[in-house]
Amino acid sequence: MAFGKKILFLIVTSLAIAQMAISGDPDILTDFVLPPNSPPIDSNFFTFTTFRSLVSAPVPPTFKVMKATMEQFPALNGQSVSYAVLIYPGGSVNPVHTHPRSAELLFLTQGTLEVGFVDSTNKLYTQSLQTGDIFVFPKGLVHFQYNADVKNPALAISAFGSANAGTVSLPNSMFNSTIDDTVLALSFKTDVATIQKLKSGLKG
Ligand SMILES: *[C@@H]1O[C@H](CO)[C@@H](O)[C@H](O)[C@H]1NC(C)=O
After folding, report:
1. In angstroms, rounded to a whole number, what is the distance separating the alpha carbons of residues 134 and 120?
2. What CATH number does the domain located at 51-166 have?
3. What is the pTM of this model?
4. Name one GO molecular function term (predicted).
5. Atom of ligand 1 nearest to the CA of 172
6. Where along the chain do its domains lie?
7. How far is the CA of 99 from the centre of ligand 1 (A)?
8. For residue 149, what are the CA distances in angstroms to 85, 89, 95, 126?
């Protein structure tokens, strides 16, 4: 490659990388985005009170997630941020999943939590979190959380760099969608009966 072309290539690729590094949700050209046909708004539009229900609430019987994304809180549309509150009764798991549009910054505010993610080379990174710890799950990677302490609940708050990070649950998309049994049996190098057994455990 000629020197001039090399320089041009370097400039173009570094601009592309810079673009990737700053990319969140698409930028908006207004201060905030109102839902279509919205009546005039006030401060209440920017306030989300659903999590008040968590104050002094009993521990739920199974793993529970409460979200504040643009679906529940429309003022987040265009702001590239959202939250989830995650409650893990003793021994419960948040099954393996990914968030296609954002990293997840998990802050453990109560209890202990086993967490892990798998990178694109299939390397597993795990950690035992203590109350007060923060862990980041990189964008789009498969991850999980598990409260191994059967006696005590754990509580975490997760922040996302998207108003709609999305959740793809692996058990669900593999074995609770309508992907053909034969395709799954071939994909997992097993038989259709094994696939049907896995599917039956997830039917709602
Ligand atoms: C499986 O899919 C059904 C229908 O979409 C849903 O109601 C149910 O909650 C799903 N099961 C799990 C374990 O997510």
Report:
1. 22
2. 2.60.120.10
3. 0.86
4. manganese ion binding
5. 14
6. 51-166, 168-204
7. 18
8. 19, 9, 16, 16
